[in-house]
Specification:
There is one protein chain. This protein has 150 residues and is mainly alpha-helical. It has five helices and no strands. It has two domains: 30 residues, no CATH class; 108 residues, no CATH class. The structure holds heme C (HEC).
Length: 150
């Protein structure tokens, strides 16, 4: 439903652009969040709700100090080549009934419980802090609720 209306919106905009210059230079090259396309992957640019952006802004800088290699806690490696397959659709070690990331369901994703600090087992992440701010967690929630695409 959301996707369809977005497509319709873009279609409408494209049609209007031909007539009246819809966007007038302001919409072109921007993603659904109004941020420049591509910039989200750059750790120096703003974070977006895309997996690659979450990786470069959060997992790599804030998690891999612990979550990498053979000794990664709970076997969860969060480096760029392992994180997606170890998170999405994978049962957590702490609460096996919960997936680490349940596509479309951020509320029931253990990753979110750990980041927000209401996990049933163990500690809030990143262990020892500093913890992620609400906006950053919100983008991770958005990525999950949008289907947790790679
Ligand atoms: C200082 C080390 C350290 C850092 C940094 C750290 N973690 Fe952890 N993490 C642990 C330990 C130890 C555990 C196992 C105990 C527990 O669940 O609290 C764990 C467990 C987890 C689990 C539960 C896995 C499961 O299957 O039960 C998740 C999810 C997690 N971490 C995510 C993260 C994320 C995301 C980050 C970065 C934002 C992060 N961690 C940063 C040490 C760390």
């Amino acid at each position: 439903m959301r996707k369809a209306s977005k497509v319709m919106l873009y279609g409408l905009c494209a049609a209007l652009a031909a007539i009246a210059g819809c966007g007038g230079g302001s919409g072109e090259g921007l993603d659904a969040n109004g941020r420049p396309i591509g910039e989200g992957d750059d750790p120096a640019g703003p974070m977006t709700a895309k997996f690659s952006s979450i990786q470069s802004h959060v997992f790599t800088p804030a998690c891999t100090a612990c979550h990498s290699g053979a000794a990664a806690p709970r076997g969860l490696r969060l480096d760029a080549s392992n994180s997606f397959v170890m998170l999405v659709g994978v049962s957590s070690g702490g609460v096996p009934a919960l997936k680490r990331v349940a596509p479309g369901d951020a509320d029931n994703s253990y990753l979110i419980h750990k980041l927000e600090g209401h996990q049933a087992v163990g500690a809030r992440m990143p262990l020892g802090g500093p913890y992620l701010d609400a906006q950053t967690i919100g983008l991770i929630r958005q990525w999950i609720n949008n289907g947790a695409q790679k």
